[in-house]
Amino acid sequence: MSLRSEAWFGGQNVSGLIHRASLRAGGAPDNVEGRPVVGLCSSYSELVHCNVHLRLLAESVRRGVLEAGGVPVEFPTISLSENLMKPTTMMYRNLMAMDVEEMIRSHPLDSVVLMGGCDKTIPAQLMGAISVGVPAIVLPGGPSAPARFRGRDLGVGTDLWRYTDDVRAGRMSMEEYRELEGHMIPTHGHCNEMGTASTMAALTEALGFSLIGSSMVSAVSNVRAAIAEATGRRAVGIALEELSPRRILSLEALENAITLLNAIGGSTNAIIHLIALAGRSGIELPLEKFAEISSRTPRMTNVRPSGEYLTGELAEAGGIPAVLAELSGLLNLDAVTVSGRTLGAEIADAGSRDRRVIGTLREPIGPPGALTVLKGSLAPRGAVLKRSAASDGLLHHRGRALIFEGIEDALHRLEDPMLDVDRDSVLVLRGVGPVGAPGMPEWGMLPIPTKLLEQGVTDMVRVSDARMSGTAFGTVVLHVAPEAAVGGPLARLRDGDSITLDVANGRLDVDVDPAEFEARPLPESSKPAATRGYRSLYEQHVLQADQGCDFDFLRNAPDDPYGSTMPTGLFSGWFSGW
To answer: What is the pTM assigned to this prediction?
Structure first.
Protein backbone atom coordinates (compact mmCIF):
# COMPACT_ATOMS: atom_id res chain seq x y z
CA MET A 1 0.00 0.00 0.00
CA SER A 2 1.33 3.42 -0.97
CA LEU A 3 -0.41 6.58 0.15
CA ARG A 4 -0.85 9.29 -2.45
CA SER A 5 -0.17 11.95 0.18
CA GLU A 6 3.33 10.62 0.78
CA ALA A 7 4.41 12.36 -2.41
CA TRP A 8 3.76 15.61 -0.55
CA PHE A 9 4.65 14.72 3.04
CA GLY A 10 7.14 11.86 2.89
CA GLY A 11 10.22 13.65 1.58
CA GLN A 12 13.01 14.57 3.97
CA ASN A 13 13.81 17.67 1.98
CA VAL A 14 12.63 21.24 1.53
CA SER A 15 9.47 20.12 -0.30
CA GLY A 16 8.41 17.76 2.49
CA LEU A 17 9.25 20.40 5.08
CA ILE A 18 7.11 23.15 3.54
CA HIS A 19 4.20 20.78 2.88
CA ARG A 20 4.17 19.36 6.43
CA ALA A 21 4.57 22.79 7.96
CA SER A 22 1.71 24.18 5.87
CA LEU A 23 -0.69 21.47 6.99
CA ARG A 24 0.47 21.75 10.60
CA ALA A 25 -0.27 25.46 10.60
CA GLY A 26 -3.92 24.62 9.89
CA GLY A 27 -4.18 22.38 12.96
CA ALA A 28 -3.10 19.01 11.55
CA PRO A 29 -1.08 16.68 13.82
CA ASP A 30 2.71 16.61 13.73
CA ASN A 31 2.88 12.98 12.64
CA VAL A 32 1.03 13.25 9.32
CA GLU A 33 3.57 11.10 7.49
CA GLY A 34 2.32 7.59 6.81
CA ARG A 35 -1.27 8.35 7.84
CA PRO A 36 -4.15 8.56 5.33
CA VAL A 37 -5.14 12.15 4.65
CA VAL A 38 -8.92 12.32 4.24
CA GLY A 39 -10.49 15.31 2.51
CA LEU A 40 -13.86 16.47 3.81
CA CYS A 41 -15.31 17.94 0.63
CA SER A 42 -18.10 20.19 1.86
CA SER A 43 -20.80 21.97 -0.10
CA TYR A 44 -21.84 23.89 3.03
CA SER A 45 -23.44 27.24 2.23
CA GLU A 46 -25.84 29.57 3.97
CA LEU A 47 -27.43 30.06 0.55
CA VAL A 48 -28.45 26.38 0.49
CA HIS A 49 -30.76 25.36 3.32
CA CYS A 50 -30.36 21.72 2.20
CA ASN A 51 -26.63 21.92 2.97
CA VAL A 52 -26.43 24.48 5.78
CA HIS A 53 -25.90 21.79 8.45
CA LEU A 54 -22.92 20.18 6.74
CA ARG A 55 -20.49 22.18 8.88
CA LEU A 56 -21.82 20.36 11.96
CA LEU A 57 -21.82 16.99 10.20
CA ALA A 58 -18.18 17.59 9.23
CA GLU A 59 -17.26 17.54 12.93
CA SER A 60 -18.76 14.06 13.26
CA VAL A 61 -16.89 12.92 10.13
CA ARG A 62 -13.70 14.38 11.61
CA ARG A 63 -14.13 12.31 14.78
CA GLY A 64 -14.55 9.16 12.72
CA VAL A 65 -11.43 9.85 10.66
CA LEU A 66 -9.34 10.48 13.80
CA GLU A 67 -10.70 7.34 15.49
CA ALA A 68 -9.53 5.28 12.49
CA GLY A 69 -6.06 6.84 12.50
CA GLY A 70 -6.46 9.25 9.59
CA VAL A 71 -5.84 12.95 9.23
CA PRO A 72 -9.05 14.91 8.40
CA VAL A 73 -8.80 18.11 6.34
CA GLU A 74 -11.97 19.99 5.43
CA PHE A 75 -12.24 22.10 2.31
CA PRO A 76 -15.14 23.91 0.59
CA THR A 77 -16.36 23.87 -2.97
CA ILE A 78 -19.13 25.83 -4.62
CA SER A 79 -22.62 24.84 -3.55
CA LEU A 80 -25.79 24.71 -5.63
CA SER A 81 -29.09 26.08 -4.31
CA GLU A 82 -32.04 24.63 -6.18
CA ASN A 83 -34.35 27.31 -4.81
CA LEU A 84 -32.19 30.44 -4.99
CA MET A 85 -29.79 29.89 -7.90
CA LYS A 86 -30.84 31.25 -11.30
CA PRO A 87 -31.43 30.40 -14.06
CA THR A 88 -30.95 26.83 -12.81
CA THR A 89 -28.51 24.73 -10.80
CA MET A 90 -28.25 22.36 -13.76
CA MET A 91 -26.27 24.99 -15.60
CA TYR A 92 -23.70 24.91 -12.77
CA ARG A 93 -23.58 21.18 -12.04
CA ASN A 94 -20.62 20.73 -14.39
CA LEU A 95 -18.85 23.73 -12.88
CA MET A 96 -19.18 22.22 -9.43
CA ALA A 97 -17.94 18.88 -10.77
CA MET A 98 -14.86 20.64 -12.17
CA ASP A 99 -14.32 22.42 -8.85
CA VAL A 100 -14.49 19.14 -6.92
CA GLU A 101 -12.28 17.33 -9.43
CA GLU A 102 -9.51 19.91 -9.39
CA MET A 103 -9.58 20.40 -5.61
CA ILE A 104 -9.10 16.66 -5.09
CA ARG A 105 -6.55 16.28 -7.86
CA SER A 106 -4.33 19.16 -6.80
CA HIS A 107 -4.13 18.38 -3.08
CA PRO A 108 -2.52 15.60 -0.99
CA LEU A 109 -5.62 13.51 -0.38
CA ASP A 110 -5.75 9.73 -0.03
CA SER A 111 -9.54 9.60 0.08
CA VAL A 112 -12.42 12.04 0.20
CA VAL A 113 -15.80 12.28 1.92
CA LEU A 114 -18.31 13.97 -0.39
CA MET A 115 -20.82 15.87 1.74
CA GLY A 116 -23.88 17.16 -0.12
CA GLY A 117 -27.64 17.27 -0.15
CA CYS A 118 -29.40 19.59 -2.58
CA ASP A 119 -30.33 18.13 -5.98
CA LYS A 120 -27.20 18.64 -8.10
CA THR A 121 -24.53 18.50 -5.38
CA ILE A 122 -24.20 14.73 -5.02
CA PRO A 123 -24.11 14.14 -8.81
CA ALA A 124 -21.55 16.94 -9.24
CA GLN A 125 -19.37 15.63 -6.43
CA LEU A 126 -19.44 12.07 -7.77
CA MET A 127 -18.67 13.23 -11.31
CA GLY A 128 -15.60 15.07 -10.04
CA ALA A 129 -14.40 12.25 -7.80
CA ILE A 130 -14.84 9.59 -10.49
CA SER A 131 -12.76 11.66 -12.89
CA VAL A 132 -9.87 11.94 -10.43
CA GLY A 133 -9.91 8.35 -9.27
CA VAL A 134 -9.10 9.00 -5.60
CA PRO A 135 -11.19 6.77 -3.26
CA ALA A 136 -14.44 8.53 -2.36
CA ILE A 137 -17.43 7.96 -0.11
CA VAL A 138 -20.67 9.97 -0.08
CA LEU A 139 -22.33 11.35 3.04
CA PRO A 140 -25.84 12.54 2.11
CA GLY A 141 -27.12 15.46 4.16
CA GLY A 142 -30.53 13.89 4.73
CA PRO A 143 -34.12 15.08 4.23
CA SER A 144 -35.75 17.82 6.27
CA ALA A 145 -38.34 17.11 8.94
CA PRO A 146 -41.89 17.47 7.64
CA ALA A 147 -43.96 20.54 8.33
CA ARG A 148 -47.58 20.37 9.47
CA PHE A 149 -50.20 22.43 7.68
CA ARG A 150 -53.93 22.00 8.10
CA GLY A 151 -53.43 18.70 9.91
CA ARG A 152 -51.23 17.17 7.19
CA ASP A 153 -47.52 16.48 6.87
CA LEU A 154 -46.15 18.59 4.04
CA GLY A 155 -43.85 17.53 1.26
CA VAL A 156 -41.75 20.56 0.40
CA GLY A 157 -42.32 20.61 -3.35
CA THR A 158 -45.23 18.28 -4.13
CA ASP A 159 -47.65 20.05 -1.82
CA LEU A 160 -46.41 23.47 -2.92
CA TRP A 161 -47.46 22.75 -6.50
CA ARG A 162 -50.91 21.57 -5.36
CA TYR A 163 -51.57 24.57 -3.14
CA THR A 164 -50.33 26.94 -5.86
CA ASP A 165 -52.94 25.51 -8.23
CA ASP A 166 -55.54 26.00 -5.48
CA VAL A 167 -54.66 29.69 -5.29
CA ARG A 168 -54.83 30.13 -9.06
CA ALA A 169 -58.19 28.35 -9.18
CA GLY A 170 -59.62 30.46 -6.35
CA ARG A 171 -59.82 27.56 -3.88
CA MET A 172 -57.27 29.10 -1.51
CA SER A 173 -56.83 32.73 -0.46
CA MET A 174 -53.55 34.64 -0.60
CA GLU A 175 -53.71 35.00 3.20
CA GLU A 176 -53.78 31.21 3.51
CA TYR A 177 -50.97 30.95 0.95
CA ARG A 178 -48.81 33.28 3.04
CA GLU A 179 -49.57 31.11 6.06
CA LEU A 180 -48.28 28.15 4.06
CA GLU A 181 -45.02 30.04 3.47
CA GLY A 182 -44.31 29.98 7.20
CA HIS A 183 -44.72 26.21 7.34
CA MET A 184 -43.08 24.97 4.13
CA ILE A 185 -39.45 24.47 5.19
CA PRO A 186 -39.20 24.20 8.99
CA THR A 187 -35.70 22.66 9.21
CA HIS A 188 -32.49 22.26 7.27
CA GLY A 189 -32.15 19.26 4.96
CA HIS A 190 -33.31 18.54 1.44
CA CYS A 191 -36.86 17.86 0.20
CA ASN A 192 -38.58 15.13 2.18
CA GLU A 193 -40.47 13.51 -0.68
CA MET A 194 -38.91 11.48 -3.51
CA GLY A 195 -37.67 14.54 -5.37
CA THR A 196 -34.28 14.71 -7.03
CA ALA A 197 -32.32 15.18 -3.79
CA SER A 198 -33.87 12.15 -2.06
CA THR A 199 -33.63 10.16 -5.30
CA MET A 200 -29.92 10.85 -5.77
CA ALA A 201 -29.19 10.11 -2.10
CA ALA A 202 -31.01 6.79 -2.47
CA LEU A 203 -29.17 5.94 -5.67
CA THR A 204 -25.79 6.45 -4.01
CA GLU A 205 -26.67 3.46 -1.83
CA ALA A 206 -27.59 1.34 -4.85
CA LEU A 207 -24.43 2.46 -6.65
CA GLY A 208 -22.39 1.50 -3.60
CA PHE A 209 -20.93 4.94 -2.87
CA SER A 210 -22.50 5.50 0.57
CA LEU A 211 -22.99 3.43 3.70
CA ILE A 212 -26.07 1.26 3.49
CA GLY A 213 -29.05 2.87 5.20
CA SER A 214 -27.58 6.37 5.11
CA SER A 215 -29.87 8.17 2.68
CA MET A 216 -33.35 8.47 4.20
CA VAL A 217 -32.41 9.30 7.81
CA SER A 218 -33.58 12.81 8.67
CA ALA A 219 -31.08 15.66 8.58
CA VAL A 220 -32.14 16.65 12.10
CA SER A 221 -31.85 13.15 13.62
CA ASN A 222 -28.97 12.26 15.95
CA VAL A 223 -28.62 9.11 13.83
CA ARG A 224 -27.39 11.37 11.00
CA ALA A 225 -24.38 12.34 13.16
CA ALA A 226 -23.65 8.68 13.89
CA ILE A 227 -23.75 7.94 10.14
CA ALA A 228 -21.32 10.81 9.57
CA GLU A 229 -18.89 9.42 12.14
CA ALA A 230 -19.08 5.93 10.62
CA THR A 231 -18.50 7.47 7.18
CA GLY A 232 -15.33 9.14 8.49
CA ARG A 233 -14.02 5.84 9.80
CA ARG A 234 -14.74 4.11 6.52
CA ALA A 235 -13.03 6.91 4.58
CA VAL A 236 -9.76 5.82 6.19
CA GLY A 237 -10.46 2.23 5.19
CA ILE A 238 -11.02 2.99 1.51
CA ALA A 239 -7.78 4.98 1.47
CA LEU A 240 -5.78 2.07 2.89
CA GLU A 241 -7.51 -0.40 0.57
CA GLU A 242 -7.15 1.94 -2.45
CA LEU A 243 -10.82 1.32 -3.26
CA SER A 244 -11.12 3.67 -6.23
CA PRO A 245 -14.44 4.90 -7.68
CA ARG A 246 -13.79 2.94 -10.88
CA ARG A 247 -13.97 -0.31 -8.87
CA ILE A 248 -17.42 0.66 -7.61
CA LEU A 249 -18.99 2.36 -10.63
CA SER A 250 -19.56 -0.62 -12.92
CA LEU A 251 -22.32 -1.22 -15.44
CA GLU A 252 -23.79 -3.67 -12.91
CA ALA A 253 -23.89 -0.96 -10.23
CA LEU A 254 -25.55 1.45 -12.66
CA GLU A 255 -28.16 -1.18 -13.51
CA ASN A 256 -28.85 -1.57 -9.78
CA ALA A 257 -29.33 2.19 -9.51
CA ILE A 258 -31.74 2.27 -12.47
CA THR A 259 -33.72 -0.60 -10.93
CA LEU A 260 -34.02 1.29 -7.63
CA LEU A 261 -34.88 4.50 -9.49
CA ASN A 262 -37.95 2.84 -10.98
CA ALA A 263 -38.85 1.05 -7.77
CA ILE A 264 -39.04 4.30 -5.80
CA GLY A 265 -40.77 6.30 -8.55
CA GLY A 266 -37.75 8.59 -8.46
CA SER A 267 -36.95 11.82 -10.22
CA THR A 268 -36.55 11.96 -14.00
CA ASN A 269 -33.49 14.15 -13.35
CA ALA A 270 -31.66 11.07 -12.11
CA ILE A 271 -31.62 9.70 -15.66
CA ILE A 272 -29.46 12.62 -16.79
CA HIS A 273 -27.16 12.33 -13.78
CA LEU A 274 -26.63 8.56 -14.11
CA ILE A 275 -25.76 8.95 -17.79
CA ALA A 276 -23.26 11.67 -16.86
CA LEU A 277 -21.66 9.49 -14.17
CA ALA A 278 -21.35 6.60 -16.62
CA GLY A 279 -19.83 8.89 -19.22
CA ARG A 280 -17.06 9.92 -16.82
CA SER A 281 -15.97 6.28 -16.68
CA GLY A 282 -16.44 5.57 -20.37
CA ILE A 283 -19.49 3.36 -19.75
CA GLU A 284 -22.20 3.54 -22.39
CA LEU A 285 -25.62 4.01 -20.77
CA PRO A 286 -28.20 4.58 -23.51
CA LEU A 287 -31.83 5.43 -22.82
CA GLU A 288 -32.73 1.97 -24.09
CA LYS A 289 -31.13 0.52 -20.94
CA PHE A 290 -33.49 2.62 -18.80
CA ALA A 291 -36.47 1.45 -20.87
CA GLU A 292 -35.42 -2.19 -20.55
CA ILE A 293 -35.02 -2.05 -16.77
CA SER A 294 -38.17 0.04 -16.27
CA SER A 295 -40.28 -2.52 -18.13
CA ARG A 296 -39.40 -5.25 -15.61
CA THR A 297 -39.30 -3.24 -12.38
CA PRO A 298 -42.49 -2.60 -10.43
CA ARG A 299 -42.91 0.40 -8.16
CA MET A 300 -42.11 -0.74 -4.63
CA THR A 301 -42.59 2.39 -2.54
CA ASN A 302 -45.62 4.50 -1.68
CA VAL A 303 -43.88 7.87 -1.46
CA ARG A 304 -44.85 11.30 -2.85
CA PRO A 305 -45.12 12.45 -5.59
CA SER A 306 -45.89 8.91 -6.80
CA GLY A 307 -47.62 7.91 -3.58
CA GLU A 308 -48.88 8.93 -0.18
CA TYR A 309 -46.01 9.03 2.32
CA LEU A 310 -42.80 11.00 2.91
CA THR A 311 -39.20 9.87 3.37
CA GLY A 312 -39.63 9.70 7.15
CA GLU A 313 -42.16 6.89 6.80
CA LEU A 314 -39.89 5.23 4.23
CA ALA A 315 -36.99 5.30 6.72
CA GLU A 316 -39.20 3.83 9.46
CA ALA A 317 -40.32 1.06 7.10
CA GLY A 318 -36.73 -0.04 6.57
CA GLY A 319 -35.40 2.60 4.20
CA ILE A 320 -33.52 1.94 0.99
CA PRO A 321 -31.89 -1.29 2.31
CA ALA A 322 -35.38 -2.78 2.67
CA VAL A 323 -36.36 -1.70 -0.85
CA LEU A 324 -33.16 -3.20 -2.25
CA ALA A 325 -33.74 -6.42 -0.30
CA GLU A 326 -37.23 -6.74 -1.75
CA LEU A 327 -35.75 -6.12 -5.20
CA SER A 328 -32.88 -8.58 -4.75
CA GLY A 329 -34.13 -10.89 -7.48
CA LEU A 330 -33.66 -8.05 -9.98
CA LEU A 331 -30.28 -6.81 -8.75
CA ASN A 332 -26.61 -7.55 -9.40
CA LEU A 333 -25.83 -8.61 -5.84
CA ASP A 334 -22.10 -9.12 -6.49
CA ALA A 335 -21.53 -5.42 -7.15
CA VAL A 336 -18.83 -3.97 -4.90
CA THR A 337 -19.77 -1.23 -2.43
CA VAL A 338 -17.74 1.36 -0.56
CA SER A 339 -17.96 -0.86 2.53
CA GLY A 340 -15.68 -3.35 0.80
CA ARG A 341 -18.52 -5.89 0.81
CA THR A 342 -20.94 -6.77 -1.96
CA LEU A 343 -24.38 -5.24 -2.20
CA GLY A 344 -25.88 -8.64 -1.48
CA ALA A 345 -23.99 -8.90 1.80
CA GLU A 346 -25.01 -5.36 2.75
CA ILE A 347 -28.76 -6.00 2.38
CA ALA A 348 -28.86 -9.62 3.55
CA ASP A 349 -30.60 -8.79 6.84
CA ALA A 350 -32.89 -6.01 5.53
CA GLY A 351 -36.61 -6.16 4.85
CA SER A 352 -39.79 -4.12 4.88
CA ARG A 353 -41.36 -3.30 8.24
CA ASP A 354 -44.46 -1.67 6.75
CA ARG A 355 -46.12 -3.08 3.62
CA ARG A 356 -48.14 0.12 3.20
CA VAL A 357 -44.90 1.95 2.40
CA ILE A 358 -42.65 -0.76 0.89
CA GLY A 359 -44.19 -3.53 -1.16
CA THR A 360 -42.85 -6.84 -2.45
CA LEU A 361 -42.19 -8.16 -5.93
CA ARG A 362 -45.29 -10.35 -5.57
CA GLU A 363 -47.41 -7.51 -4.19
CA PRO A 364 -45.82 -4.27 -5.42
CA ILE A 365 -47.19 -0.78 -4.81
CA GLY A 366 -47.51 -0.09 -8.55
CA PRO A 367 -46.90 -1.67 -11.95
CA PRO A 368 -43.61 -1.63 -13.89
CA GLY A 369 -42.70 1.38 -15.97
CA ALA A 370 -42.57 4.17 -13.35
CA LEU A 371 -40.20 6.04 -15.69
CA THR A 372 -40.97 5.71 -19.39
CA VAL A 373 -38.62 6.40 -22.30
CA LEU A 374 -40.29 7.77 -25.42
CA LYS A 375 -39.03 8.07 -28.98
CA GLY A 376 -40.64 9.16 -32.21
CA SER A 377 -40.76 11.93 -34.77
CA LEU A 378 -40.77 14.60 -32.04
CA ALA A 379 -38.01 12.95 -30.01
CA PRO A 380 -35.70 10.96 -32.31
CA ARG A 381 -33.03 10.67 -29.59
CA GLY A 382 -35.50 10.25 -26.76
CA ALA A 383 -37.65 11.87 -24.12
CA VAL A 384 -38.84 10.73 -20.69
CA LEU A 385 -42.08 10.72 -18.69
CA LYS A 386 -42.72 9.83 -15.04
CA ARG A 387 -45.61 7.45 -15.55
CA SER A 388 -46.04 6.83 -11.83
CA ALA A 389 -46.98 10.51 -11.33
CA ALA A 390 -49.05 10.86 -14.52
CA SER A 391 -52.79 10.50 -15.17
CA ASP A 392 -53.83 7.11 -16.54
CA GLY A 393 -56.39 8.69 -18.83
CA LEU A 394 -53.72 10.72 -20.62
CA LEU A 395 -51.20 7.96 -21.26
CA HIS A 396 -52.62 7.52 -24.74
CA HIS A 397 -53.61 10.95 -25.98
CA ARG A 398 -53.93 12.94 -29.18
CA GLY A 399 -54.32 16.70 -29.18
CA ARG A 400 -53.40 19.88 -30.99
CA ALA A 401 -50.20 21.66 -30.04
CA LEU A 402 -50.24 25.00 -28.24
CA ILE A 403 -46.67 26.29 -28.36
CA PHE A 404 -44.90 28.61 -25.93
CA GLU A 405 -41.58 30.18 -26.88
CA GLY A 406 -39.82 30.13 -23.52
CA ILE A 407 -41.06 30.43 -19.97
CA GLU A 408 -41.88 34.16 -20.06
CA ASP A 409 -44.25 33.62 -22.97
CA ALA A 410 -45.87 30.71 -21.15
CA LEU A 411 -46.38 32.45 -17.81
CA HIS A 412 -47.86 35.50 -19.54
CA ARG A 413 -50.32 33.67 -21.78
CA LEU A 414 -51.41 30.86 -19.45
CA GLU A 415 -53.31 33.40 -17.35
CA ASP A 416 -55.16 34.80 -20.38
CA PRO A 417 -58.90 33.96 -20.19
CA MET A 418 -59.06 34.23 -23.99
CA LEU A 419 -56.29 31.67 -24.60
CA ASP A 420 -57.25 29.26 -27.38
CA VAL A 421 -56.90 26.06 -25.36
CA ASP A 422 -59.04 23.16 -24.18
CA ARG A 423 -58.44 20.15 -21.95
CA ASP A 424 -57.30 18.05 -24.94
CA SER A 425 -54.64 20.53 -26.07
CA VAL A 426 -50.97 19.55 -25.75
CA LEU A 427 -48.97 22.35 -24.14
CA VAL A 428 -45.52 22.62 -25.73
CA LEU A 429 -42.65 24.60 -24.19
CA ARG A 430 -39.56 24.88 -26.37
CA GLY A 431 -36.25 26.70 -26.40
CA VAL A 432 -35.57 25.71 -22.78
CA GLY A 433 -33.14 22.82 -23.20
CA PRO A 434 -29.45 22.60 -22.26
CA VAL A 435 -28.39 25.24 -24.81
CA GLY A 436 -31.66 27.08 -25.30
CA ALA A 437 -32.41 28.30 -21.78
CA PRO A 438 -29.46 27.84 -21.12
CA GLY A 439 -29.15 25.12 -18.51
CA MET A 440 -32.35 23.13 -19.05
CA PRO A 441 -34.33 24.55 -16.10
CA GLU A 442 -37.14 22.76 -14.26
CA TRP A 443 -39.86 24.46 -16.28
CA GLY A 444 -41.34 21.37 -17.91
CA MET A 445 -44.30 21.08 -15.52
CA LEU A 446 -46.10 24.01 -17.13
CA PRO A 447 -49.02 25.28 -15.05
CA ILE A 448 -52.50 24.34 -16.23
CA PRO A 449 -54.07 27.38 -17.93
CA THR A 450 -56.11 29.33 -15.38
CA LYS A 451 -59.34 29.11 -17.38
CA LEU A 452 -59.08 25.29 -17.34
CA LEU A 453 -58.15 25.12 -13.64
CA GLU A 454 -61.34 27.01 -12.92
CA GLN A 455 -63.22 24.35 -14.91
CA GLY A 456 -61.73 21.60 -12.74
CA VAL A 457 -58.97 20.40 -15.10
CA THR A 458 -56.07 19.08 -13.00
CA ASP A 459 -53.76 17.57 -15.63
CA MET A 460 -52.88 17.94 -19.31
CA VAL A 461 -50.24 16.51 -21.61
CA ARG A 462 -47.23 18.80 -21.62
CA VAL A 463 -44.11 18.44 -23.79
CA SER A 464 -40.79 20.27 -23.53
CA ASP A 465 -37.02 20.08 -23.91
CA ALA A 466 -36.73 21.22 -20.26
CA ARG A 467 -36.64 19.21 -17.02
CA MET A 468 -39.06 19.24 -14.10
CA SER A 469 -38.67 19.09 -10.35
CA GLY A 470 -38.53 15.58 -8.97
CA THR A 471 -41.25 16.67 -6.54
CA ALA A 472 -43.64 17.54 -9.37
CA PHE A 473 -46.36 15.42 -10.96
CA GLY A 474 -48.54 15.26 -14.04
CA THR A 475 -48.47 13.87 -17.58
CA VAL A 476 -45.31 15.72 -18.52
CA VAL A 477 -42.95 14.71 -21.34
CA LEU A 478 -39.43 15.99 -20.66
CA HIS A 479 -35.85 16.03 -21.99
CA VAL A 480 -36.90 15.98 -25.65
CA ALA A 481 -33.70 15.39 -27.62
CA PRO A 482 -32.35 16.95 -29.61
CA GLU A 483 -33.66 20.23 -28.21
CA ALA A 484 -35.23 22.99 -30.28
CA ALA A 485 -32.26 25.33 -29.89
CA VAL A 486 -29.97 22.98 -31.82
CA GLY A 487 -32.49 22.21 -34.55
CA GLY A 488 -34.48 19.39 -32.97
CA PRO A 489 -37.99 18.60 -34.24
CA LEU A 490 -39.67 20.77 -31.61
CA ALA A 491 -38.29 23.77 -33.51
CA ARG A 492 -40.39 22.83 -36.58
CA LEU A 493 -43.61 22.27 -34.66
CA ARG A 494 -46.47 24.71 -35.29
CA ASP A 495 -49.57 25.65 -33.33
CA GLY A 496 -52.39 23.29 -34.21
CA ASP A 497 -50.17 20.37 -35.26
CA SER A 498 -51.58 17.11 -33.93
CA ILE A 499 -49.36 15.34 -31.36
CA THR A 500 -49.81 11.73 -30.30
CA LEU A 501 -48.52 10.42 -26.97
CA ASP A 502 -48.54 6.62 -26.75
CA VAL A 503 -46.88 5.60 -23.48
CA ALA A 504 -47.62 1.89 -23.87
CA ASN A 505 -45.59 1.80 -27.08
CA GLY A 506 -43.03 4.40 -26.02
CA ARG A 507 -43.93 6.89 -28.76
CA LEU A 508 -44.14 10.67 -29.11
CA ASP A 509 -45.06 11.74 -32.63
CA VAL A 510 -46.30 14.70 -34.62
CA ASP A 511 -49.01 13.75 -37.07
CA VAL A 512 -47.64 15.66 -40.04
CA ASP A 513 -46.30 14.21 -43.29
CA PRO A 514 -42.57 13.61 -42.63
CA ALA A 515 -41.44 15.27 -45.86
CA GLU A 516 -43.57 18.33 -45.21
CA PHE A 517 -42.41 18.51 -41.61
CA GLU A 518 -38.73 18.24 -42.52
CA ALA A 519 -39.13 20.95 -45.18
CA ARG A 520 -40.29 23.52 -42.67
CA PRO A 521 -37.63 26.18 -42.08
CA LEU A 522 -36.01 26.39 -38.68
CA PRO A 523 -36.80 29.64 -36.86
CA GLU A 524 -33.94 32.02 -36.25
CA SER A 525 -32.85 32.29 -32.64
CA SER A 526 -33.60 35.60 -30.96
CA LYS A 527 -31.26 34.82 -28.08
CA PRO A 528 -27.63 35.93 -28.60
CA ALA A 529 -24.91 33.41 -27.83
CA ALA A 530 -22.84 34.07 -24.73
CA THR A 531 -19.42 35.55 -25.50
CA ARG A 532 -17.55 35.28 -22.21
CA GLY A 533 -17.17 33.39 -18.96
CA TYR A 534 -18.62 30.12 -17.82
CA ARG A 535 -21.86 30.57 -19.73
CA SER A 536 -19.94 30.75 -23.00
CA LEU A 537 -18.03 27.58 -22.08
CA TYR A 538 -21.30 25.90 -21.16
CA GLU A 539 -23.14 26.72 -24.37
CA GLN A 540 -20.22 25.61 -26.55
CA HIS A 541 -19.58 22.28 -24.87
CA VAL A 542 -22.73 20.97 -23.15
CA LEU A 543 -24.12 17.71 -24.51
CA GLN A 544 -27.79 16.88 -24.98
CA ALA A 545 -30.00 15.27 -22.34
CA ASP A 546 -29.61 11.76 -23.74
CA GLN A 547 -25.84 12.15 -23.15
CA GLY A 548 -26.16 13.42 -19.59
CA CYS A 549 -25.69 17.17 -20.26
CA ASP A 550 -22.01 16.83 -19.35
CA PHE A 551 -19.30 18.75 -21.17
CA ASP A 552 -17.92 16.94 -24.20
CA PHE A 553 -14.33 17.38 -22.99
CA LEU A 554 -15.00 15.81 -19.54
CA ARG A 555 -16.30 12.43 -20.63
CA ASN A 556 -14.14 9.30 -20.62
CA ALA A 557 -11.68 10.35 -17.92
CA PRO A 558 -8.35 8.48 -18.33
CA ASP A 559 -7.62 5.42 -16.19
CA ASP A 560 -4.41 7.01 -14.94
CA PRO A 561 -5.39 10.65 -14.36
CA TYR A 562 -2.72 13.25 -13.95
CA GLY A 563 -2.07 14.33 -10.40
CA SER A 564 -1.67 10.82 -8.95
CA THR A 565 1.71 11.93 -7.62
CA MET A 566 2.91 15.25 -6.31
CA PRO A 567 2.65 17.87 -9.06
CA THR A 568 5.44 20.25 -9.93
CA GLY A 569 5.29 23.17 -7.50
CA LEU A 570 7.14 25.07 -4.81
CA PHE A 571 10.69 23.71 -4.45
CA SER A 572 9.72 20.52 -6.28
CA GLY A 573 12.80 18.80 -7.62
CA TRP A 574 15.17 20.62 -5.26
CA PHE A 575 17.33 18.38 -3.11
CA SER A 576 16.63 14.67 -3.26
CA GLY A 577 17.29 14.48 0.48
CA TRP A 578 19.44 15.83 3.28
So the answer is: 0.95
